[in-house]
Here is the input.
Amino acid sequence: MMKLFGLMMILLWPFNGFAQKGSQGIASYYHTRFHGRKTASGEIFSNQKMTAASNRLKLGTMVRVTNLRNGKSVIVKINDRMSAGNGRLIDLSHRAAQELCFIDQGTCKVVVEPIEEKDAFLYIDSLGQFGIKDSF
Here is the structure.
């Protein structure tokens, strides 16, 4: 029984504390070859949607991602998982990376903050995607 409890704690460890505050780390973005493939949530990945992959957050979580270099922010939905051991905090869709202005660099340092789903829908853009704002 203790072994099972210990295993559950290890599996759940990445989620502990993340929801209460933001976390800093490196963001990257999906290669175009993933466009049209099924994500871990079962959704079909599109480089034009405001989505992301994370191994630390639950699928379906809405997060605000802020580029620490320029202060630009986007809101994305976590709908996929990253390959284990890549060392990055989050992988963003191409569109989200464009809005954060780091396409040319390939990666950037970000803060990722979980937000309430109801707050995310306050920021819908003209294409019906989750909000893109320079500041909140």
